[in-house]
Amino acid sequence: MKKIVLIFCLLVFYKVTVAQNITFLYELSQKRDSDDNKYSTTPFYLDVMGKESVFRSEKDRYSDSLVEKTGFGIGSGLTFANQFYVKKNLSKMEIIKSITTPLMNYKYDLKISDTLDWQISPEKQRIGEIECQKAYLKYGGRSWVAWFSESIPLQDGPYIFNGLPGLIVKISDEQSNFVFNLVEVMSSKQKNIYI
Predict the structure, then answer these.
(1) What distance in Å separates the CA atoms of residue 16 and residue 24, rounded to the nearest whole number?
(2) How far is CA 162 from CA 5, 9, 73, 147, in A?
(3) Phi-psi label, residue 80: left if phi above 0, alpha if psi -120 to 50, beta otherwise
């Protein structure tokens, strides 16, 4: 089992440091109503190329690939669905939330200037086969608990979260209204992270 974990960590380390194109699939479990424990689940992708990344839903990622191939995507004049992205350029320490309404050909970019002041705990835990360490953050009126892994040397994670000494494997607010879990690591052959 230790050999499998070592091979996994070496593979991820190689992809992050040499290959540079890597995709992380996260699952967002979100409470439908804060008064009950029923969750809806949505897959999200973190596509990383060097020091840049984009975080978006599976539907938006698929739509982007359709637009690239055909000129039409989900929402390209067919629906009023908004597309939501978080774009990061960690070498410039720049984070942008981007909302696009395809039908109305409207795009709104919001630069995030908040500093993420992480408090790293000595507490450690295994999540699946990955050794993780705990960290805390106050952001957006919520208290967040993150588990990151230094064995994956990428200071990124889901949504706007970044800046820990390793990839964020799991993060949730204290009430567990929003829970992001890393479920898969994939190679990416994309030449552009935005498609």
Answers:
(1) 11
(2) 24, 19, 30, 12
(3) alpha
23 falls in which pLDDT band (50, 70, 90)?
very high
Q: What SS3 state is found at 61? A: helix
The length of the chain is: 195
Q: Taking 90 as the threshold, does the pLDDT of residue 37 lie above it? A: no
For residue 107, give the amino acid letter: K
- Two tokens, residue 179: 């829970």
**DSSP assignment of 13-50:** HHIIIII-EEEEEEEEEEESSTTS--EEEEEEEEEEET
Where would I find the beta strands (DSSP E) of 32-128? Answer: 39-49, 52-57, 83-89, 94-101, 106-112, 119-127
Other beta carbons within 10 Å of 164: 23
The pLDDT tens digits of the residues spanning 60-102 come to 666 544 444 434 444 444 444 567 888 999 888 899 988 877 6
Residue 65 CB neighbour total at 10 angstroms: 12
> What's the confidence (pLDDT) of residue 16?
47
